[in-house]
Amino acid sequence: MEIIVCVKQVPDTTEVKIDPATNTLIRQGVPSIVNPYDKYALEAALQLKAKHGGQVTVISMGPPQALEALKECIAIGADRAVLLSDRSFGGADTLATSYTLAAGIRKLGRFDLILCGKQAIDGDTAQVGPELAEQLEIPLISHVAKIDLEGERVTVEREQEESYAVINAPLPLVVTVTKAAYKPRLPNMKGIMRAKRTEIPVYTMADLDVDEQKLGLKGSPTQVRRIFAPKQRVQGQIIDADSPQQAATKLVEKLLESKII
């Protein structure tokens, strides 16, 4: 069983900085973490490996500092990792990102299952997983709360608005994972030491079978026109009353005082 987990390093700060020229996040020098949803996907992979055997590989696209995120994944329990990093990858939207990740996965060779977090907390698009499946021309099951393996097939519980759908599908496929059944484990000392010793390969554009016009900003049909912080809302006020009628009366009085009505 060859399981690949796609991870992303995301900013761990409220002081997000934007490049005014490209309207993309400035990641250099900004404190970062492994995207939480990707940790759920990694936990799902490690549980499958513990039950059925196999190998877990983590892959990420990002600047050199993303090696820290991959080291953390190895410390948690991943067997190996690879980073896709090149200036030509910079500024990619979800389509260019999925194209590059697909090229990196093909470079790795055989795979049975690809797991992604359902979304990244910086962009919140939930698009890379589905687009990756399209790039690799394999099926997708999104928003999965639980996954298990049965021979050459998987059975998953897919989250819906008020229920779960149980789906059985053949391998290979892409699955995007929610946090429902997967609490990420912490790295132990043995894992931390192994991560320190591990040399993580870095693939550049020259290492991949890609069209340069489909990478980074060049390959991104969507462009961010403007990013800004919303204005802070005025804090609300709680009306204490003994009954709904009294609460309604107090509310009307306050609205009248404020000349709202």
UniProtKB/TrEMBL annotation:
Residues 22-212 form the Electron transfer flavoprotein alpha/beta-subunit N-terminal domain. SUPFAM superfamilies: Adenine nucleotide alpha hydrolases-like (SSF52402). PANTHER family: ELECTRON TRANSFER FLAVOPROTEIN BETA-SUBUNIT, PROTEIN FIXA. This is Electron transfer flavoprotein small subunit. The lineage of its organism: Bacteria, Bacillati, Bacillota, Clostridia, Eubacteriales.
